[in-house]
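Agenda item 2: NAP complex prediction
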Amino acid sequence: MRIAILGGTGNIGKGLALRWGSKHEIIIGSRMRSKAERAAEEYREVLSAVASSRGQVRGAANREAAMAAEIVVIAVPYSAMRELADAIRPVLEDQIVISLVVPMERSNSYLRYRAPPDGSAAMELKRLLPDTVRVVAAFHNLPGEKLRRIDMQLDCDVVVCGDGDAMRVVGALIEEIDDLRVLDGGGLEDSAMVESLTPFLINIAKRNNLSELGIKFV
Ligand SMILES: NC(=O)c1ccc[n+]([C@@H]2O[C@H](COP(=O)([O-])OP(=O)(O)OC[C@H]3O[C@@H](n4cnc5c(N)ncnc54)[C@H](OP(=O)(O)O)[C@@H]3O)[C@@H](O)[C@H]2O)c1
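Presented output:
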């Protein structure tokens, strides 16, 4: 599939690009095309070293990347989400949009979930984008650092929220990544529960001196 990762120059975007890069056509999106192209070159080199294939990874400006893709991953901080949605709205048609975005704020040295008025970042994105776009929420509780180390086994669950066919398409893409299990978390209106787990996981890691945490339901 042709997958645009907007904010693909960042932490979690890099992980997804590397995990999908040998099987799919990946377009790294950035506010700056040159930055996206540099990141794409770096990811191709990583892929050629560990996966013996440079993969089909290229860079583009966010809007151009979204226009060219079937799947559009939104991997930017919440503070940047609205501006990005405004930029890509005119070029979106019937793409599946995957939201990884977690709205959170710092309180003393810890993080708190900050629910937007729409209920969650994914619900807000759905309101901001054309009705023809199908928004799915996923990957919020996956540790980006471990995702980026492509030789590392993840052994995590990924809770996905959304509807219908789009859920199935995204679920299949997630299960292509070794050792990830997809769990149906309900409709997009349930995504706040999954988003809110992220600051909780980060705080637990910090309080207990652990490395980045993911989730696994047993
Ligand atoms: N890191 C994780 O482990 C993880 C796990 C699950 C979910 N998430 C969520 O995924 C999203 C991305 O996380 P991340 O850690 O990958 O973020 P990040 O590395 O801080 O940022 C990702 C990219 O977003 C773009 N960006 C940053 N600030 C921006 C701004 N003010 N305006 C427009 N674009 C901006 C930058 O791309 P350009 O400069 O190239 O445009 C940056 O490379 C967040 O919402 C986060 O909560 C992260």
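Discussion summary: The pocket of NAP is lined by residues 7, 9-13, 30-31, 35, 75-80, 100-102, 139-140, 142-144, 198 (CB under 6 Å).
Owner for follow-up: CH.
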